[in-house]
Write a structure and sequence with these properties.
The protein is of the alpha/beta class. It folds into two domains: about 210 residues, Aspartate Aminotransferase, domain 2 (3-Layer(aba) Sandwich); about 120 residues, Aspartate Aminotransferase, domain 1, CATH 3.90.1150. Helix content is about 35%, strand content about 15%. The strands form two sheets. It has a seven-stranded mixed β-sheet with strand order 1-7-6-5-4-2-3, sandwiched between helices. A three-stranded antiparallel β-sheet has the order 8-9-10, with helices on one face. Helix 2 packs antiparallel against helix 6 and helix 6 packs across helix 9.
Length: about 350
């Protein structure tokens, strides 16, 4: 099991409890739950228990949950399944890249899409609501007065189960609670008018290509991560405040993104003036300290953040810090000590 020590990246290793039982879930979750043989019945029972666990943690009904073996499909299925040619798709400039791809496809087809500015919309319209921005950690007010369908993007780090009362579909990613990669969780409210946007010849709502063992492991990770996150919440918030205070006092000329907004205790986005993000990330990496920069949707290639651009903020000098339940005082102290040294070096301060 790889420790999370000194890692402030959004991605984290599989939760220790899930890793501990990984061999067992693969040994027990191999059979097709749709068949009538005893191994299949046992698998179906395990899958039913997993869905019940997800339902309790995510605030939805078990029969509203669908697993996806290709997580990015969650945006396409959830949003396009609610849209009709008569709909206007409301979105935000700070939404994830897959949402903007859907907007682009829609406008290219001369169908309606518009940035959301607290409009009530009409019953045929669809709103993409991002509960917490995965890059800045900023909470968004629930669109309780929106008249149309609401797709909830719950893919930010952590577990966010307080859905608006008028939600129609919601999407989570297993990685956000230290579950295994390669699994998405889509919830579609039973009474909403949703149509499968994929080519299909049966009544199946989503492709049945997900790994059952990964779904079982993800349920274990979710249950234990939720406990860890709740118990570590106060400590995590203190760490975040400590980092902010240090950046402002010891490094200076730093912009804390969303400082005045309600935000996640686990996520912190900062813009450090006079610093090259890629060089800073590489220098920290050489010291075995791992942080993120660039777009949260495309961090691997250091693409500039479209979220910061949409907020009218600089896209250079950005760094994103994720505080995990396992983060320690020593991790934070190591980060701050090295960060100050490396920033001073870039700024040529002796």
């Amino acid at each position: 099991m790889v420790p999370i020590t000194s890692s402030f990246q959004t991605e984290a290793p599989l939760h220790p409890k899930a890793a501990q039982l990984l061999t067992e879930v693969f040994a027990r979750g191999w059979a097709d739950p749709a068949k009538i043989h005893e191994p299949s019945r046992q698998t179906a029972l395990l899958l039913h228990e997993a869905k019940a666990s997800f339902a309790a943690a995510l605030g939805v009904r078990a029969d509203e949950i669908y697993f996806l073996g290709e997580p990015p499909l969650g945006f396409h299925l959830g949003i396009n399944g609610l849209l009709t040619p008569a709909s206007c798709l409301f979105f935000s400039g700070t939404d994830r890249a897959p949402v903007h791809a859907i907007v682009h496809q829609r406008t290219s087809s001369h169908l309606a899409a518009a940035e959301y500015e607290n409009q009530n919309g009409s019953p045929s319209d669809v709103l993409v609501y991002q509960s917490i921005n995965p890059e800045t950690g900023i909470h968004k007010e629930k669109p309780e007065n929106f008249l149309g369908a609401v797709f909830v993007d719950n893919t930010a780090y952590g577990v966010h189960s307080h859905l608006p009362s008028n939600w129609s579909a919601s999407f989570w990613q297993s990685r956000s609670w230290q579950g295994p990669a390669g699994l998405g969780v889509l919830a579609i409210k039973n009474e909403v008018n949703w149509r499968n946007p994929l080519p299909h010849i049966d009544s199946t709502k989503v492709p049945q290509s997900f790994s059952i063992p990964l779904a079982l492991a993800s349920a274990i990770a979710l249950e234990n991560f939720t406990k860890d996150l709740l118990s570590a919440h106060t400590q995590t918030r203190e760490f975040k405040n400590e980092i902010i205070s240090f950046l402002q006092k010891n490094i200076g000329d730093v912009l804390i993104v969303g400082l005045e907004d309600e935000s996640s205790a686990s996520l912190l986005s900062v813009i450090i003036s006079g610093v090259d993000s890629e060089r800073l990330i590489n220098d920290l990496n050489a010291r075995q300290i791992y942080v993120d920069a660039g777009s949260a949707c495309m961090s691997g290639n250091m693409q500039p953040s479209h979220v910061l651009a949409a907020m009218g903020l600089p896209v250079t000098g950005n760094m994103r810090i994720t505080l995990h339940p396992q983060t320690t005082h020593e991790d934070v102290a190591k980060l701050l000590l090295n960060l100050e040294e490396l920033v001073r070096k870039q700024r040529n301060i002796n």
